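Q: Second attempt. The first request was missing the SMILES, so the protein and calcium ion are both included now.
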Amino acid sequence: MAAHIKTLLLVLFSITVPIRITSATALSTWCASKGTQAWYLGQSCYTLTTDAKSYVDNANTACTERVNGGVAMLSTTDIIKSVCTNLLSKSSNTLWFIAFVQILQSDHAGKNDDWFWVDSKNNTYGRCPDATWASGEPDDQPPKVDGLDHNYENCVVIEKTGIMRDTGCTGSFFPAICQYREPSFDYQTKNIGYKVKSTSTALISGKVEISVETTEWCAIMCKTYITCRAFSINKSLITCTLLFKYDLSEADFEPNPDYETYGLY
Ligand SMILES: [Ca+2]
Ligand SMILES: [Ca+2]
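A: Got both inputs this time. The predicted holo structure:
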């Protein structure tokens, strides 16, 4: 076979084969069997609890119908919209806890500061630029006139419309949105021959150009973080960059033949 044909076949092969962590599972089938009580999206199944509990109790005792369950992290606008339309709107309840919490980084933090998805606490990533607060929220009740956050309301409930309210983590009681993740993920090819720009907001400190033994390790590392939605591999150096942004656009990339990116859909 001529060398250039071999090269062409290799290129085609690398473009069309997703990185699969393990074989498919029954999560999507289980999710579909629950009808309007569940919604499958982005290789997660979202369900609703019915008992009103504190956030802490929800986090400790709810969302245990299957493995890989926890209070949901709706880490992008598209996920919030889809879960609202396809799950929340069909429920008779009105407010649910999600795993979005305030972890104050200083004594002078404001009410809008330092909100994180719980798998990213103590890091600078995982903040949700897509969080839409209800009018006057977050208000950190009971209010103080200095405008600072006084560590009162550090958990969040979401309404059917997708807007959010800060509320107490132990003293207020609501059901929760659960998220069950596939034990196996398929990361689909997103961009071949392009590198994520160093200025992209998808990048976070400490998760860039990590040396790995195989490209599959990059997918395994990304799966560790619920807020990691994609990863980029340098095929020459075998390094891995995790990407904490779902809606990567052309503006996030620049041409570079050494790189390819895989995303979770
Ligand atoms: Ca607060
Ligand atoms: Ca509030």
